[in-house]
């Protein structure tokens, strides 16, 4: 019989795989999502940590044979991760429409070749089926497919039979892909939890180390699009990367595996927008396949550098963005040739320090000022930067060391939440582009 891993929505089994966990499945999870359960009676399971509740090794070995092992996340988090990987409801529906068009063409060709009796019913049903109809039929199928009374009443010519769970069926119109799993999530929209149950593989000796399942898949998978390969984030300087690294883990730990950071500090070169442009040009010229998000400051130099990258036509895998406009910068203390003023510094002097919150920006009881340092003739505006950068970063590092829950830190650092939402959006766009390019919708 063998042992199987199962992907489930609540108590509905979506997909099974024998002897191993497909790498694509693991792209939806992090090792922190693994939970251990014990069944205390039929269909009643509770979270259980044998290392916490049992001290005797013999008892531990005996009880471990009854444990269940699952990755477990909310469907809300599953969608958040799918979106970052470029799999959005819009992309899913577009790909369904492409499949439907291609399938109708195949059916017409088969009927013309004399197979009308075999394919006429499917052509009739598919011609009138849209994505909303597919979702309704998928929900009906998945919630009744193991009910004998339902199955025996289904005639051979029925949508139920066309949906039957095998590769190439209506259910798996895109194959066993993340995109198709996303389509099923849309169909079972009232589901609350996505599980990957690998208990049978664990007990069957198919897995070497539970905690390394995700990491091993990340290193060994060579698939396209590259769902298992993190997006690389680049910034103008080392301070940018320190803030981005620490804030991702602190505010959005559930998204940490989807990003890595390119730290050019060890290369012992200056930072700044111009150096980031040079790196991106080098990456583009080398035609690297990794996806890159380059984060420029929201100042004159940053916008000019971003526009320069956009104008030279970099590969679609490289996405330059600027730090977003924020409310805090609409009326911020500045100092320059004309003295002290409250100014809107969005687009002129917003560096990463402005995203560290009022508390970290407060030095000696006041918000540290932005000092205007130069006039840009091309834009007619001044550029500037925060005066007490070192102290602001020290405040931030100290606050991160104090810790806190992601919810607490999001409330304390709303500007960082805005920044990460902008990065998540850019990641979704660059990954969606990669998906469409891989499918031939967009030329390479």
Summarize the structure in words.
This protein has 444 residues and is α+β, with helices and mostly antiparallel strands. The protein has two domains: 1-227, no CATH class; 230-444, no CATH class. Helix content is 45%, strand content 20%. It is built from 19 helices and 18 strands. The protein has helices at 23-26, 50-53, 57-64, 75-84, 89-112, 116-127, 131-144, 148-152, 159-163, 178-187, 199-203, 213-220, 238-251, 273-286, 300-311, 357-361, 389-402, 406-412, 414-438; strands spanning 4-9, 12-18, 34-41, 44-47, 67-74, 193-197, 231-235, 259-261, 292-296, 298-299, 318-322, 332-336, 339-343, 349-350, 362-363, 366-367, 370-376, 381-386. A six-stranded antiparallel sheet has the order 2-1-6-5-3-4. Strands 8-7-9-11 form a four-stranded parallel sheet, with helices on both faces. A four-stranded mixed sheet has the order 13-12-17-18, with no helix packed on it. Helix 13 runs parallel beside helix 17. It is globular and about 85 Å long. It starts with a strand and ends in a 6-residue tail after the last helix. The mean pLDDT is 87.
Tally of structural domains:
2
What characteristic shape results from the CA principal axes? Answer: globular
Number of helices: 19
Give the overall average pLDDT.
87
The total of beta strands comes to 18
Q: Flag low-confidence runs.
A: none
Q: State the end-to-end CA separation.
A: 44 Å
Strand order of the largest sheet: 2-1-6-5-3-4
Structural class by helix and strand composition: alpha+beta
